[in-house]
Design brief:
mainly alpha; three-stranded antiparallel sheet; 3 strands; 252 residues
Length: 252
């Protein structure tokens, strides 16, 4: 790839693409000047990561200006990558939920049809049929454990959280995260004896912490897109004011 070093570079983000342009000033015969733009490259807004070819192009285009590179990457992350990730995760969640619902309905319809099959009373007592019936009932025991008898939600209905106003749902999520952070922090010091020095954590726990690295960064970046949620320059000095230190374990 050619080493592109324009006088400046800029992004254009429309509904479908993220485009990178080189901007140059062109002297006009009358003594004035005009801006000329050259298209450098693009990638779709559905991308959840910056394509390597585009990243290399952006890095080369901002050679010697690391602050410009970081500024453009931050804009791409906030305006393109995070929304695309959230949209993809929401779509995957919708598809998974629909697949589970379809499978449950299919299984229910077939189970209801079995006793009405021709000659069912005659054959169900046979050893091979009894073995198949026993295997079916044993397999259903795992599903029976997931039945929440305290919550009466009609099949196919959305959970209550789906009808909450967006800000109320956001507050609910923030409270859950806050409580989880306090509890996790309280578990980790050795003096609590929850995890002794040298304790070997399960791979699932390690994976969960690794996911937290990226999830927390994505959340802070998404929230920072709103001016009210951006950290103040002296934000670390606001800890005692923002947090109710009386309800937190002291830092160790």
């Amino acid at each position: 790839m050619a080493n592109v070093q324009p006088s400046s570079v800029s992004l254009k983000i429309n509904k479908s693409s993220v485009m990178l342009y080189a901007n140059r000033y062109v002297a006009l015969p009358g003594g004035g000047s005009a801006t000329a733009q050259t298209y450098l490259g693009s990638f779709p807004r559905t991308a959840t990561e910056v394509p390597s070819t585009f990243e290399v192009l952006l890095r080369e285009s901002t050679l010697g200006r690391p602050e410009r590179y970081l500024s453009l990457m931050q804009r791409i992350t906030l305006d393109v990558l995070i929304p695309a990730r959230l949209k993809r995760e929401q779509e995957e969640c919708r598809q998974n939920r629909a697949a589970i619902g379809n499978a449950l309905r299919w299984a229910t319809q077939n189970l209801q049809a079995i006793p009405r099959m021709p000659a069912y009373p005659t054959h169900i007592g046979q050893p091979d049929q009894q073995a198949a019936l026993k295997a079916l009932l044993e397999a259903s025991e795992d599903l029976a454990e997931d039945v929440e008898v305290s919550v009466e939600t009609p099949l196919g209905a959305e959970p209550d959280t789906a009808i909450l106003p967006p800000e109320e749902r956001l507050m609910q999520l923030l409270k859950s995260i806050d409580a989880a952070c306090i509890e996790i922090a309280a578990l980790m010091p050795e003096q609590t004896k929850a995890f002794k020095r040298g304790y070997v954590f399960q791979p699932e726990t390690v994976s969960g912490v690794q996911r937290l690295w990226f999830r927390s960064s994505d959340v802070i970046a998404a929230l920072s897109a709103r001016s009210q949620f951006r950290r103040a320059r002296n934000w670390s000095g606001l800890r005692a004011k923002v947090l109710d230190m009386r309800h937190e374990a002291p830092a160790t």
